[in-house]
């Protein structure tokens, strides 16, 4: 029996998501026993705050019980913190799940989604999984080309994804650019702002999406607890959207989509959200330091509003990511994201991990 023929035809050419390599895999492949710098997955290099860890420990005591469906306590807390209605909050198993639910709920097979070609690859993957057209628009200077994206919207477009700040480039679009962009998008098109790196943004002209929502109910904001709050391993994020959108998402989700420990940890994270200033300061300092080093080496490296840098080496070996792994440093090749050959993304680790990355780069360049 040819089991491939039982699957839907459009899955035949679908390439699954390729995550950043975990430390254990590289240790096995390379036979490395010394410490590694994992700088491939945009994680906070530090463990969760002690208040979060305490909440997780308490949650373990009830881990034999199913969690509350819909995460009502967390939903209430998010609503209070962000000054929105509880019926405007949807909690998901990471923002990936929410992206999946939005496409499955709102986009028919003969309709499309519009997004930047050099952005979060999950938009493209989920469109293919749902057998809907993903309209990819080329970037401009490693930023969303909003003019071209607006022109790409047609009467078949149901969702436009704007990753701001953008992954994997770290760049952003300004409030003025977003205002002009929205003026050209029909009111009945959902505009999803993926704000996974919102907490890292320091730019004064970054758009206030929550204010924009008051004027346009079809705007949706996605945020996550994976980054600054160090909860990537628990997979929890949320959407702020019109109550009708939230109602539809609740019809689409699985019964217990967010586990008990994730709910407890996220609620604790919100309670201590004002205590992450040191992380943000170090991230900014390290980001500026590494970017200067990359520019001094003659590489392209746009300014970042996130916890990572996009690097396009010039005159470096073609296998630079592989060679960094040999030296115990894991970065993320950007070809899968639609980036140029040999480009990569490096997230900010501890200063020691970042130093190992810089030393590795200089070693490779010195031997090439």
Query: How many domains, in number, for the residues?
Result: 2
Number of helices: 13
Low confidence ranges: none
Helicity level: 25-40%
- The CATH C-level name of the largest domain is Alpha Beta
Number of strands: 12
Broad shape: globular
At CATH level 2, the architecture of the largest domain is 3-Layer(aba) Sandwich
In this structure, how is the largest beta sheet organized?
7 strands, mixed
Average pLDDT reading: 94
Distance between the first and last residues' Cα: 50 Å
Q: Can you identify the CATH superfamily of the largest domain?
A: Type I PLP-dependent aspartate aminotransferase-like (Major domain)
**Proportion of residues in extended strands:** 5-15%
Largest sheet: spatial strand order: 2-8-7-6-5-3-4
Instruction: Assign the CATH topology of the largest domain.
Output: Aspartate Aminotransferase, domain 2
The secondary-structure element order is HEHHEHEHEHEHEHEEHHHEHEEEH
State the secondary-structure class. alpha/beta
Rg from C-alpha positions?
A: 21 Å
